[in-house]
Each structure stands twice: as C-alpha cells, then as structure tokens.
Amino acid sequence: MTEPSIFSRILAGDIPGEILFETDRVFVIRDIAPQAPVHLLVIPKTEQYRNVTELAASDPSLLAEMVAAAQQLADNHADGEFRLVFNTGAGAGQTVFHVHAHVLAGQLTEQSVGA
Ligand code: AMP
Description:
Blueprint (H helix, E strand, L loop, with lengths): L5 H7 L6 E4 L3 E5 L7 E7 L7 H7 L1 H18 L5 E3 L15 E5 L10
Antiparallel strand pairs: 1-2, 2-3, 3-5, 4-5
Helix pairs in contact: 2-3
This protein binds adenosine monophosphate.
Adenosine monophosphate (AMP) binds next to loops.
C-alpha cells in the first residue's frame, strides 16, 4: 500500500484544509502557497491518476468536470477569466502525484504559473 496523497489526507480530514466546493467526484481547496490573487486547486477524489495525461486517457469526463469546476470558481471568485495549469512531471514542477488543476485568476502576471 502506498501512502495517501496530501490531498487525500485533506479530503479525509486527517490534516487541516478548507474544502471550498465539492461534487461526487472532485473537490477544491485553496493553494497553501498562492501564486495569484485567486489560486485554487481542483482535485479528483480518486488519486488513481498521477497526472492529466493519465486522466485524459482513462476518464475524459472527469477531466471535463474539472474544467467546468474551474470555470465556476473563476466566475465566483474573480471575473470569470482564468489560467488552468497542470504541472506534469517533476521536471515541470509537479510535486504532488495525484492529478490536480491549478486555477489562477485575478490580476495575473507572467509569474503566475502555478508551479
Ligand atoms: P504541483 O507542484 O503542481 O504538484 O502542485 C502542488 C500544489 O499543492 C503546490 O502549489 C502546493 O503549494 C500545494 N499544496 C501543498 N500542500 C498543500 C496543503 N496542505 N494545502 C493546500 N495546498 C497545498
């Protein structure tokens, strides 16, 4: 058995974290180290997909649900426009291998890459 990811531990209530929004299949938390005025993470409840490539190949409807959640968050927390970032691979800045989308919104700069 591998250890649950940090996101699964937040979902389970084992470590602190405010869940802003959830559906049957996804949940949303604030990034602990925000890179933009609005920096939220949309996370599938399952941790079976390590990155967006695996997710897209196996469950495109779940990926579509993540994108729809991102739009809803940008509508509710900013002006409806947003940057969606999936770091894929350690060399690209991925540190948690439980697929998640960074939703960046508000006054974005070129530095707001969500890494
Ligand atoms: P990535 O580097 O793309 O794998 O993204 C992982 C993100 O998770 C980083 O932006 C971290 O700041 C964020 N993160 C790590 N631990 C926590 C936590 N306990 N609560 C909220 N966000 C976290």
